[in-house]
Amino acid sequence: MAVSPGVFSWDDNSLLLQLKDGLGDDEIEVIYVGCLKEEVHLSEQDEVSQILLDSFKCVPTFLPADLFTRYYHGFCKQQLWPLFHYMLPLSPDLGGRFNRSLWQAYVSVNKIFADRIMEVINPEDDFVWVHDYHLMVLPTFLRKRFNKVKLGFFLHSPFPSSEIYKTLPIREELLRALLNSDLIGFHTFDYARHFLSCCSRMLGLSYESKRGYMGIEYCGRTVSIKILPVGIHMGQLQSVLRRSDTEAKVKELIKQFCDQDRIMLLGVDDMDIFKGISLKLLAMEQLLVQHPEWQGKIVLVQIANPARGKGKDVKEVQAETHAAVKRINEIFGKPGYDPIVLIDEPLKFYEKVAYYVVAECCLVTAVRDGMNLIPYEYIISRQGNDQLNKLLGQEPSTPKKSMLVISEFIGCSPSLSGAIRVNPWNIDAVADAMDLALEMAEPEKQLRHEKHYRYVSTHDVGYWSRSFFQDLERTCLDHSSRRCFPSGFGLSFRVVALDPNFKKLSMERIVSAYKRTTTRAILLDYDGTLMPQASIDKSPSSKSIGIINSLCRDKKNMVFLVSARSRKTVAEWFSQCEKLGLAAEHGYFLRLMRDAEWETCVPVADTTWKQIAQPVMQLYTETTDGSTIEDKETALVWCYEDADPDFGSCQAKELLDHLESVLANEPVTVKSGQNIVEVKPQGVSKGLVAKRLLSIMQENEIAADFVLCIGDDRSDDDMFEVIATSMTAPTITQNAEVFACTVGQKPSKAKYYLDDTAEIVRLMQGLASVSEQTLTE
User: Fold this and answer.
1) Residues 263-288: tens digit of each pLDDT
2) Which of 76-90, 131-145, 429-443, 463-477 has the lowest mean pLDDT?
3) Quick check: is 716 in a domain?
4) Prediction pTM value
5) Is 524:710 a contact under the CB 8 Å cutoff?
6) Triad 167, 172, 177: Cα angle to 5°
7) Is 578 in contact with 552 (CB distance < 8 Å)?
């Protein structure tokens, strides 16, 4: 190709063109990284890159033709695009199974983009905004290069439900790649909800809403989720409305339709399997059958944009559309009148805008689509301007009107409350909606148009891009203070963000401290700490019992096991541990050793509140398969560990709200934990056990010079807090060795972590060995 500035121009249909003005802040320099539609010879690439950077602030990635075909027309259009539009990947229409070589091409292109981006950004200061499903693994490659990169991602297509998405063989890789972003944007709540559901079901991640913001906790980072429908480029559309060739086309259409007393209905869709063109044509046919009075009066102009993908399904849709148009026109047409006009060729944008201006009603009946901005463009075009009003025979003061019949399956549907929403599969309902749009009173049409115009004109692409960027800035505020380190390989790579003072517990250091010290306090959680959460048999192994007994036999140690379980259960499980202190039900019950009496850390509680809480929990148990209720002496626990993860989580949130409401005047607290919702007396916490242990030592005029506290969840943070505040109290010596340790790398009030229960057991075994050696000396 010839290399000269005249060769290059912005693509009018490109999203980047809309963003160009949306982010047009003088203080923000925007550089666009993308790929060209044409292949550029290697010898010309440097020159082309320089021209595009100087003239357009664009940085091109040069993709070989074969790689681009396999990446775009292969993986993007044959695998991701159909799946995200609810077509299963094993559908015969896709010609078979998942193609691993196409996936490799997709990954390769994303790597090329990452290389190109790293050439032009300053990772410390710049923000990167990645767009759409074509670059879903790009966040992983960027995060791998620089773990504090400020990174946003926006998905412009639907995100399917988990039942569809889970059929994708590389489902986890894509989810983890997106979670390497700081902020992920979706057009609608439904798309975001499906993504969150997939993260919950497939990765076991939890999400919550705080002050209006949704976020997923992932490796110590909060990945923010934003719901923000994109808008149109108002300036571009209004400039097109002022063009002389637009006015000329409007005149032509007025002569063709209005002067013939014909009412134009308009459809503008890509010629693909999801746009529902054939369903729209069938609805038009049904309208003419059910309401013969419209025959000869209405015309459906269907503009079919060229399909973006390739394949036999596109050809089949095209053939089906032409056949339906021919059949309907033969039945209802007459000399000088065809009820359907099909324009199956590319139109310039100004020509489409002219059709918008003249059309009385716009029909968008896609069976599945992303945002789809056709209704927005139609609304702004119908608002028009003074010159167009003159052509249409309207006074400047005349209220404008527009009517929309739109599918409930497109992204803009929730934003257009005045539109007539339809299920495009219900042909009769669509026909009735078209009749309603035609028959509606003029004042009602005007009110609906005014409402839509006010929304669309204020929520344009500038508003969309600024809002996203502001949230990205807010999300990344703590980047500089994070201590991040990489974890995982390939597309499982992730960055773990931790408190700057949070670090892995050194076995050598704690063993050394254990040997030096003479008065030790050891507090151990059980479930998730000494016993993996996933274990079916939760009772302690003989190995664990042996380790605990070795620690307890050492006269320098005071060992407490702290559990949420009932005192009956822990007493049975640890009946062989004579000198082990036990705390049950989060510390409500406590005994210093096996033969001691149980005591309570708080006054004996009134449990009449159970009569209120139990029926509520029972209701949720009956409606949540796999859930159970555990009735403890002082608490009630609803467990959904064996229920469907997504449904269980949803039910747990509702149950939490319900219980908080009905128990508002009772002396209890309602808390959610790992797969549980628990109601327990106020003031009860594992922190009380830590206080009691240290106070017992103080009563015996003993100050601990070694404190080890290990737990795995939020309830253990109470113990960690008590340990931290006690460092300045007389219960601990001034130079005491204090170790608060959690299981796994996650946000915690502990200062140390070990990776899993296996490492915890190895640590305890090491300390027990030291004690055994001391006893034999």
Assistant:
1) 999 999 999 889 999 999 999 999 99
2) 76-90
3) yes
4) 0.76
5) yes
6) 130
7) yes
Closest CA to 300 of 258, 264, 254, 247: 264
Query: Is residue 414 domain-shared with residue 324, that is, in the same domain?
Result: yes
- pLDDT category of residue 26 using cuts at 50, 70 and 90: low
Residue 69's contacts (CB-CB under 8 Å, 6 or more residues apart) are: none
Distance, CA of 64 to CA of 594 (rounded, Å): 74
What phi and psi values does residue 384 have, to the nearest 5 degrees?
A: 60, -150
What is the rounded CA–CA span in Å between residue 301 and residue 264? 7
Helices 645-662, 610-623: axis angle to 10 degrees equals 160
Residue 386 CB partners (closer than 8 Å, separation 6+): 396
Bridge partners, 707 (sequence order): 521, 738
Q: Does 580 share its domain with 695?
A: yes
- Whether pLDDT at 92 is above 70: no
What is the amino acid identity at position 631?
Answer: D
Among 631, 654, 681, the domain-final residue is 681
Domain limits for position 163: 63-199+211-223
Contacting residues for 167 by C-beta, under 8 A, at least 6 apart: 83, 88, 89, 90
* Distance in angstroms (rounded) separating the CA atoms of residues 123 and 145: 9
Counting beta carbons within 10 angstroms of the beta carbon of residue 156, is it exposed (0 to 12), middle (13 to 18) or buried (19 or more)?
middle
Which residues are CB-contacts of 244 (< 8 A; sequence separation ≥ 6)?
none
Are 206 and 649 in contact by the 8 Å Cβ rule? The answer is yes
Q: Do 451 and 417 form a contact (C-beta atoms < 8 A)?
A: yes
Residue type, 206: S
User: Residue 606: exposed, middle, or buried by beta-carbon count in 10 A (0-12, 13-18, 19+)?
Assistant: exposed
Mean pLDDT of the chain: 88
701: left (phi over 0), alpha (psi -120 to 50) or beta: left
Neighbours of 112 (CB within 10 A): 19
Q: CA of 172: how far to CAs of 98, 177, 492, 606, in Å?
A: 15, 8, 8, 48
CATH number of the CATH domain containing 69: 3.40.50.2000
> Contact at 8 Å (CB) between 581 and 593?
yes
Q: Of 531, 535, 611, which Cα lies nearest the Cα of 563?
A: 531
143 and 288 inside one domain: no
Number of domains in the chain: 4
What is the DSSP code string of 406-420?
A: EETTSTTGGG-TTSE
Contacts of 532 (CB under 8 A, 6+ apart): 756, 757
